[in-house]
Design a protein that fits this description.
The protein is an alpha/beta fold. Helices cover 42% and strands 16% of the residues. It folds into two domains: 3-175 and 360-371, 3-Layer(aba) Sandwich (Rossmann fold); 190-349, Rossmann fold, CATH 3.40.50.2000. It has a seven-stranded parallel sheet, sandwiched between helices. Strands 10-9-8-11-12-13 form a six-stranded parallel sheet, with helices on both faces. Helix 2 (50-55) links the parallel strand 2 and strand 3 (62-64).
Length: 390
C-alpha cells in the first residue's frame, strides 16, 4: 500500500519551493500525494494563488480558508484559530501517513498543531534557520519540536536542529529547495516578460520585495518601507517592480504605501503574484533585488544577482557575498544601492559561491520520506548533547 503524504502549502512562495518535491511524490510508485492548500492561496486579496497549484497539474484535496479581512495582531491569532478548526477536519478526512511542512509561517504552525493533536508524523523542511527580526524564528523552532523528520539547507542548520534536542538520525542536510526550483524551472524569454510587465527593455531594473518586520511594532515596518521609497525616488530611470508583502501583521499598510508610490511614479509597477516561472525570469533579468525577503539570500545567488538586504528581518540567516546588508536609513540604503550597481560589485557576482550549494534537495527528501520507518516515530526522546568539561 502506498504511503499517503500530505503536503501543506499556505503561500505562493512556499508552493514555488515545494513544487518539484510534489512532482516527485506524485510520480512515485511508493507514495500517494495529498495537497492541502490554505492561507494566502485562498485569498483574492493575495492573488487567489490556489489556481497556480491547479495550473501546475495538482489536484487540491482540501482547501481551508483561514485568513480574515484584517492584518491586525488579533486577526492573525483569530485566523490561526479558524485554520486550526478547518485543518483538523481536513486531516481527519485525509488521514495521511506523513504531513510535509516547510518554513515558518503561522499557517504552517497551525497545521503542525493540528497534526500533533491528530497523532500524524511530520516532516519539516528548512528548520534550524535564524531570522532574528521576525517572529518566524519562534514559529520555525516550534514546528521543529513538533516534527519527526527534519530536512535542512546547510550544515549549520543541521547542528542547530540537533541542538534543539532532535535525534541526529532524523536530521538531513539536503540543501535548499529554492536552488532545486531554480535548477528545474524553464524561464520565459526576456522580451515576453518585459512586454507583459510593461518594462523598458533599455533600462536597468530592480525587483523589490519588502515584508513586515513582525517582531517590531507595525510603525517600524512602515517607516522602513517609507525610507526605501524615498531612496527609490532618486532612480527615475530604473524600472522598479514590487511584489506585494505577505499576509502578516502590518502587511496591508505596506501594500497601501507601495500602491501610492506606483501610482505616482511611471517607472514603478506592483504585482500581487508573479508565479514561480515569471518570478524567476524577472529575478534572472534584474540588476538587483531590494528588500528583506529570504529570496534575495537563497534564490538570487542562483542567477548571480546581487541583493540589498534591509534591516534585521533576515538577520542570522546564512548569506553569501552577493548580499549587501544595510540598516534601514536613507543614507545606508542609498549607499548600498549604489554599491549594488557598481562595476566592481557586478563583476564580483560572476565569481559568486552560493552558500546553499547542495543540489537535488527534492530527490533527497523523496528518498527519505519513502523509506524512513514511521512506526513509533512519534515517540520522541530529547537528544542531549554531551558538553565537554573545562
Amino acid at each position: 500500500m502506498k504511503r499517503k503524504v500530505c503536503v501543506v502549502t499556505g503561500s505562493r512562495a512556499e508552493f514555488g519551493l515545494m513544487r518539484w518535491l510534489m512532482e516527485k511524490i506524485k510520480a512515485s510508485d511508493d507514495l500517494s500525494l495529498q495537497v492541502l492548500a490554505t492561507g494566502m492561496h485562498l485569498s483574492p486579496e493575495c492573488g487567489h494563488t490556489i489556481s497556480e497549484i491547479e495550473d501546475a497539474g495538482f489536484s487540491i484535496d482540501e482547501g481551508v480558508e483561514m485568513l480574515l479581512s484584517s492584518d491586525s495582531k488579533q486577526a492573525i491569532s483569530k485566523s490561526m484559530g479558524i485554520g486550526l478548526i478547518g485543518i483538523s477536519d481536513a486531516l481527519d478526512r485525509l488521514r495521511p501517513d506523513l504531513l510535509v511542512l516547510t518554513g515558518d509561517r503561522f499557517e504552517i504552525f497551525t497545521a503542525a498543531i493540528a497534526a500533533m493533536n491528530a497523532g500524524i508524523p511530520m516532516a519539516h523542511i528548512h528548520g534550524g534557520e535564524l531570522t532574528e527580526g521576525a517572529i518566524d524564528d519562534m514559529v520555525r523552532h516550534s514546528i521543529t519540536k513538533m516534527s519527526h523528520l527534519h530536512f535542512v539547507a546547510a550544515e549549520e542548520y543541521k547542528q542547530r536542529v540537533i541542538q534543539l534536542g532532535e535525534d541526529p538520525k532524523t536530521v538531513f542536510n539536503v540543501g535548499a529547495l529554492g536552488i532545486d526550483a531554480a535548477q528545474h524551472v524553464e524561464l520565459l524569454p526576456e522580451a515576453d516578460l518585459v512586454r507583459e510587465l510593461n518594462l523598458n527593455p533599455k533600462r536597468e531594473r530592480l525587483l523589490i520585495t519588502f515584508h513586515p518586520v513582525t517582531i517590531e511594532e507595525q510603525t517600524a515596518s512602515e517607516e522602513q518601507l517609507s525610507t526605501l521609497l524615498q531612496v527609490l525616488l532618486n532612480y527615475p530611470d530604473v524600472d522598479l517592480v514590487f511584489t506585494y508583502p505577505n499576509a502578516d501583521f502590518g502587511g496591508r499598510k505596506l501594500k497601501i504605501l507601495i500602491d501610492q508610490f506606483v501610482s505616482n511614479n511611471s517607472n514603478a509597477r506592483a504585482v500581487s503574484s508573479l508565479g514561480q516561472v515569471k518570478y524567476f525570469t524577472l529575478l534572472s533579468i534584474a540588476n538587483g533585488v531590494i528588500g528583506n525577503s529570504s529570496s534575495g539570500l537563497l534564490e538570487a545567488p542562483c542567477f548571480r544577482v546581487g541583493t540589498v538586504n534591509i534591516g534585521e528581518r533576515q538577520q542570522g540567516r546564512l548569506s553569501g557575498s552577493s548580499v549587501i546588508n544595510c540598516q534601514p536609513t536613507f543614507v545606508d540604503i542609498s549607499d548600498s544601492i549604489d554599491k549594488l550597481f557598481s562595476a566592481d560589485f557586478q563583476a564580483a557576482l560572476k565569481r559568486l559561491t552560493n552558500p546553499y550549494k547542495n543540489l537535488n534537495a527534492s530527490e533527497k527528501i523523496l528518498r527519505t520520506i519513502s523509506s524512513f520507518p514511521l512506526k513509533n516515530i512519534r515517540k520522541k526522546k530529547f537528544y542531549n548533547i554531551a558538553f565537554s568539561q573545562d
